[in-house]
Design a protein that fits this description.
6% of the residues lie in helices and 52% in strands. It is mainly beta. The protein has a domain of 225 residues. The chain has a 19-stranded parallel beta sheet that branches. The longest helix is centred in the N-terminal third of the chain and has 13 residues. It holds the Pfam family Pect-lyase_RHGA_epim. This is Rhamnogalacturonase A/B/Epimerase-like pectate lyase domain-containing protein. Keywords: Glycosidase, Hydrolase, Signal. Belongs to the glycosyl hydrolase 28 family.
């Protein structure tokens, strides 16, 4: 599996000669002021349209300049190039965005081939303008829900979106301060995300880094993500997610560094996450399968992480690994999780590994090989809770387990070490292995240790 992913990576990253890429359309030639106060939407869109009609090329936002805009609609074979020292600023008014909430993006490509974003500059969503009340626990946010297009406090614009598109490229760009999700791929095929830096406010909810929704054959490599909510998040609400490869990334988040779901109606198959560093995140590697979709053939390898507690208003309780499947609502379909491998993993965490299937959908064939788990406490947030959210059992009080096991058939442990910094556990009631009353069978332990260290 890893070899096939590597071959796909090399093919997708190979340079492609294209004379259209040499055509440059500067937005200043179409009247853009770049002063950060007057809207440049008409000029930017005119340059995009001219580029598209010419067969493709680059639309340049030259430096220096701050280009304020409503939604920009990319076209096939048009690459938006924000030069180093230039910024594209998303408007903060609801009228800056299309009527349909699903199209609320600062930059949007729909039904395109070969569209992209690059340039070394910055796309900025001005997310701070959407904060009603700042809070170091979780900000209270603006919500554009008066029109009925959405409900609750998640009615905010995303930053960059590609929908029903092919051959997407996003590389060498900074995506900064999204008001909601940052980079969103929806039902796309053959996408390459490379050398992208994402910065979201650490106290803002729902500002996910990269959401891969129903998209296939996706490469994410060399990215740095620092944000409040989930950093890399495959979702299968509107279609399956197949052949996703994530390599050489650094992540910091107040939620999950990598999270499958919770939107999970279709299957996830053949996913590889390799050489990833996770720092000070609320959860490391997570799966929240709630809507009947199935997960299979997933590899997490060569990952170093540090997970810690934050306020419990954020999903997660400092678990380095969190694998769960349960029905979102009573009577809902239960999805399966099988054939998941954790290889060469090390963590320092304030909580243990959480492995929980459900009564009619056991976790099957999980393998941990060369895994080093260190447990210690350094924050003052409340422990002693299992977090099943969304749905299911919600928050459940518990003793701390180095590994909590529930509803599992097939777990192989090979060279796994748990290290307990007892002097820093602050009164934890701990168990190296904690079995909750449920079906648990086909367990294999080889070279497993639980050690007290200081």
């Amino acid at each position: 599996m890893a070899a096939s992913h590597l071959l796909l990576l090399l093919l997708l990253l190979a340079p492609v000669a294209d004379s259209a890429a040499t055509r440059v359309f500067s937005v200043t030639d179409y009247g853009a002021a770049g002063d950060g106060s007057s809207y440049d939407t008409a000029a930017i869109q005119a340059a995009v349209n001219a580029c598209g009609e010419a067969g493709g090329g680059r639309v340049l936002l030259p430096a220096p300049g701050d280009y304020l805009t409503a939604t920009v609609h990319l076209r096939s074979r048009v690459v938006l190039e924000v030069a180093p020292g230039a910024r594209l600023l998303g408007g903060t008014r609801q009228r800056d965005y299309p009527a349909e909430r699903r199209r609320w993006y600062v930059v949007l490509a729909e039904n395109t081939t070969g569209a992209g974003v690059t340039g070394g500059g910055e796309i900025n969503g001005q997310g701070g303008a959407f904060v009603v009340r700042p809070s170091d626990q979780k900000n209270v946010m603006v919500s554009w829900n008066a029109t009925g297009h959405c409900r609750g406090d998640e009615c905010r614009p995303r930053l960059v979106g590609f929908v029903d598109s092919e051959d997407v490229t996003v590389h060498d760009i900074t995506l900064n301060q999204p008001a909601y999700w940052c980079l969103h791929l929806v039902r796309c095929d053959h996408s390459v995300i490379r050398n992208v830096s994402i910065y979201g406010d650490f106290d803002t909810p729902n500002n996910d880094g990269i959401d891969i929704e129903g998209s296939n054959n996706t490469i994410i490599t060399g990215c740095s993500i620092d944000t409040g909510d989930d950093a890399i998040c495959p979702k299968s609400l509107t279609g399956p997610v197949h052949n996703l490869t994530v390599t050489n990334c650094r992540i910091r988040t107040k939620s999950s560094a990598i999270k499958f779901g919770s939107a999970s109606s279709f299957n996830f198959e053949r996913l590889l996450f390799d050489n990833i560093t996770i720092v000070d995140s609320h959860r490391g590697l997570g799966m929240q399968i709630r809507d009947g979709g199935n997960v299979s053939n997933v590899v997490f390898s060569n990952i170093k992480m540090r997970t810690r507690y934050y306020h419990p208003s954020w999903w997660g309780r400092a678990e380095p690994i969190y694998i769960t499947t349960c029905p979102r609502y009573p009577g809902s379909k239960e999805g399966t999780i099988s054939d998941v491998f954790f290889i060469n993993i090390s963590s320092v965490s304030e909580n243990g590994v959480f492995l929980a299937g459900s009564r009619h959908s056991l976790l099957r064939n999980l393998k941990f090989k060369n895994v080093d788990l260190t447990y210690r406490r350094w924050t003052n947030y409340t422990g002693g809770l299992y977090d099943y959210r969304p749905g299911c059992q919600e928050l459940v009080k518990h003793k701390t387990g180095g590994m909590m096991l529930e509803q599992i058939s097939g777990l192989e442990i090979d060279n796994v070490r748990m290290r307990w910094s007892r002097g820093e556990l602050k009164g934890w009631d701990v168990n190296p292995l904690l079995f909750r009353p449920s079906t648990i069978d086909r367990l294999s332990f080889h070279d497993w240790q639980s050690l007290n260290v200081q």
